[in-house]
């Protein structure tokens, strides 16, 4: 199962038992993928989904919160005739519309598909969590953290997306939106914010898995940065040493090292003898010893002398 599937499975396993939270979660599901139809006698709350986890959760919520026995059927998706759709239908009498009343919907303005959840259902923080959980179960997904950090929820309209973002913002989570094929996508790409979203939905096992991946990635990135930095420093040191030796050899070949002042001659001969030794160690080998800055200063002087000789054709 995918990481996203594991998250949804955990959400269902750890879902709250309080009726007000069940109704908030149910509202989140129905507002996203529910279809409400009615006759003179009955009201149908139907959910169609390819996700068996969501189908079971919707069934359990309706049965638990309203003691209504939904029906479950399967059919083939019209898309390429490949995927199986689970159809869960909860039916209640129009004269006693318990679910309709619990969802704060009126019979006069009964939506066929998609609606904003009444704010009265989202007053408690636990109900906000349940609503976010229901929405994510319905139309949300999360990328395997080994591949990247991406949390998204797809809405039919901008108003529903805005309502969802407001509930996330209550918990300090800042999501962004984009448009994709006529839908509004609410997404989070920052790892720490995705961790917060999982915490809000109470997917704690998935949260720990994501955190472990984040820590390993940060350690790897830190090690890579240090290695790259050390490699760059080594390359810089090697290139500098090569240039120093080239300058000293040019002086030796064109005017002789004995033409140099004693202090510069000593450094030049030591560098030729020990081409790979760091400046600090090179200075300690001189008599008398010289510090790193002193060695560096003398090598710069040798470079200047080599430059002057080159300007005058080696003379």
Give the total of domains. Answer: 2
Q: Indicate the radius of gyration in whole angstroms.
A: 36 Å
State the major sheet: 4 strands, antiparallel
The CATH class of the largest domain is: Alpha Beta
Q: How many angstroms separate the termini?
A: 78 Å
Number of alpha- plus pi-helical segments:
11
Uncertain segments are none
Strands in their spatial order, largest beta sheet: 1-2-4-3
CATH architecture of the largest domain: Roll
User: How many runs of DSSP E, i.e. beta strands?
Assistant: 8
Q: Which class do the helix and strand fractions yield?
A: alpha+beta
User: What order do the helices and strands follow?
Assistant: HHEEHEEHHEEHEEHHHHH
- Give the CATH topology of the largest domain: Endonuclease I-creI
**Averaged pLDDT:** 87
Please summarize what this structure is.
This protein is of the alpha+beta class and 315 residues long. It contains 11 helices and 8 strands.
Describe the structure.
- The protein is built from 11 helices and 8 strands.
- It is α+β, with helices and mostly antiparallel strands.
- It has a 4-stranded antiparallel sheet. A 4-stranded antiparallel sheet has the order 5-6-8-7.
- A hairpin with an 8-residue loop joins strand 5 and strand 6.
- Helix 2 crosses helix 3 (52-66) and helix 7 (191-201) packs antiparallel against helix 8 (204-254).
- The protein starts with a helix and ends with a helix.
Question: Secondary-structure blueprint of this entry?
Answer:
Blueprint: H1 3-13, H2 19-33, E1 34-38, E2 42-49, H3 52-66, E3 71-76, E4 84-93, H4 98-102, H5 125-139, E5 140-142, E6 151-155, H6 158-170, E7 176-180, E8 183-188, H7 191-201, H8 204-254, H9 262-273, H10 279-284, H11 292-311
Antiparallel strand pairs: 1-2, 2-4, 3-4, 5-6, 6-8, 7-8
Helix pairs in contact: 2-3, 2-5, 7-8, 8-9, 8-11, 9-11
């Amino acid at each position: 199962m995918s990481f996203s599937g594991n998250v949804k499975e955990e959400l269902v396993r750890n879902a709250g038992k309080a009726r007000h939270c069940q109704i908030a979660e149910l509202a989140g599901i129905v507002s996203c993928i529910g279809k409400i139809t009615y006759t003179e006698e009955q009201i149908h709350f139907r959910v169609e989904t390819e996700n068996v986890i969501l189908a079971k959760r919707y069934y359990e919520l309706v049965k638990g919160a309203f003691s209504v026995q939904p029906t479950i059927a399967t059919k083939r998706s019209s898309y390429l005739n490949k995927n199986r759709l689970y159809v869960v239908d909860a039916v209640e009498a129009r004269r006693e519309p318990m679910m309709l009343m619990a969802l704060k919907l009126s019979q006069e303005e009964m939506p066929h598909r998609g609606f904003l959840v009444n704010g009265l259902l989202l007053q408690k923080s636990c109900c906000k969590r349940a609503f976010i959980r229901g929405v994510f179960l319905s139309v949300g997904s999360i990328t395997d953290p080994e591949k990247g950090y991406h949390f998204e929820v797809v809405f039919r309209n901008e108003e529903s997306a805005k309502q969802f973002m407001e509930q996330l913002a209550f918990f300090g989570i800042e999501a962004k939106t984009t448009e994709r094929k006529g839908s509004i996508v609410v997404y989070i790409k920052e790892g720490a914010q995705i961790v917060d979203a999982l915490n809000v939905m109470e997917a704690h096992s998935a949260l720990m898995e994501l955190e472990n991946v984040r820590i390993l990635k940060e350690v790897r990135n830190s090690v890579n940065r240090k290695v790259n930095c050390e490699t760059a420093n080594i390359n810089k040191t090697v290139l500098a040493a090569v240039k120093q030796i080239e300058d000293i050899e040019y002086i030796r070949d064109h005017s002789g090292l004995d033409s140099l002042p004693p202090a510069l001659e000593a450094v030049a001969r030591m560098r030729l003898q020990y081409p790979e030794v760091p400046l600090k160690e090179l200075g300690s080998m001189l008599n008398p010893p010289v510090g790193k800055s002193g060695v560096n200063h003398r090598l710069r002087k040798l470079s200047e002398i080599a430059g002057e000789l080159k300007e005058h054709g080696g003379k």
